[in-house]
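Troubleshooting: if your tokenizer reports a length mismatch, compare your output against this known-good record of 486 residues.
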Amino acid sequence: MAMPKPPEAQPSSIQPARALFATDALLPGGWARDVLLQWDAAGVLTTVLPGSHRPHGVTQASGPVLPGLPNLHSHAFQRAMGGLTEYRATAQDSFWSWRELMYRLAGALTPEQLEAVATGLYVEMLEAGYTHVCEFHYVHHDRDGQAYADDATLSLCLLRAAQTAGIGLTLLPVLYQTSGFGGTPPSQGQRRFIRSTDNMLTLLDRLRPLCAAQGARLGLAPHSLRAVPPDALRAALEGLRAQDPTAPIHIHIAEQTGEVEACLAWSGQRPVQWLLNHAPVDAHWCLVHATHMDADEYRRAAATGAVAGLCPTTEANLGDGIFDLPQWLAAGGRWGVGSDSHATVNAAEELLMLEYSQRLATRQRNVLATAAQPHVATAMTLAAVAGGAQASGHLNDGALTSTAGLTVGQRADLVELDAAHPLLQGLNTPEDMLSAHVFASHRQSAIARVWAGGQLRVQDGQHAQSASARAAFIAARRQLLENTRP
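Known-good structure output:
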């Protein structure tokens, strides 16, 4: 699609510290040559000008420049579990047995540990090519289930972690009230999650100015249909819309077949079917996972404009199943990716896993390529950036405020690939370099630099605070394991 040509910057107006020249840059309409990128003091792109000459003093990117990828689903504290649940705990392990191990970790977490783990994770995300994260935050209270003296204590930990790392944030406090369909009382392991609807709306009121002060977006996450009864869901949505008509809404839905069966037993309807019949789902919503839908649910859900929040490495790690992305795309659906439980923190690997899962399901190759973008890595990156930006809350009255990615008016979230990296060196086109980064890197990151909101956060593949953040993460994880091992 044609890009509107932004006003051409005059050399005298260029501030080299807020500019980058890219021989190749991935714009919303595809790859462009000789692109001058400039941004203002707020970190918003003011110039995206293909066919330029590099102005004096402006740095030239060492390789292709991509838009930063939004991570649309994160439970930050679960990064401390990475690699620790890969053993058989029951005769037939599943999401449900994994969840019991996760509850032990959630039950032991302190505010200091949450902030350390989240900061370390967000540093990892930036190094991995994510520049924005949607934090689906459901550990609200102290370890005994009682509210902290400051009810926003753990939310503030996440705000500080994002600010320290320099990553964009959409904070999604989670409404969680029951342990199953039909109002089953919460279990002991869920005691830190539980809030009344009024209490949640009060928390959102408290957090809104704090989020605005650091440029974070605030939304709401009804955890799931099994965790939020119908009356509470209705009241929460009405209260949220009274506060902010455009706030993003994320919900876990149809992740496991057991959830689908339980919803059918409760209501006679499948989870996505029930949601579409009873809630005002629209383009402000993100349906996280939505793995198990029938053909009618795919069609109806896509028609709402909601984003499908796909978490391929977590869904594979938990054995959830495979989302039918070709069917979703045929219905006009939008999608983005998240790292969820953070079994993997690597934007390229998330895209690789998504494409490979579709290949396994369809027994075809290059499933997610398009007529406009036959290189599958290019097509996937553009789609994930657009869907992720929408799910992050960059909407206005139901329409995108502007095209997502590297375009005037968007945040200067840039990822520079290293053309001298062994896996990219000698390749002649940016399409091939991005393909190598996604499909051939074998965890050897080819990312050279990352800017988030116009601030250089990663240089030579490493965040400036990498060492200190990871040391604090390791210490916090060690403490948690001492308190959670059987």
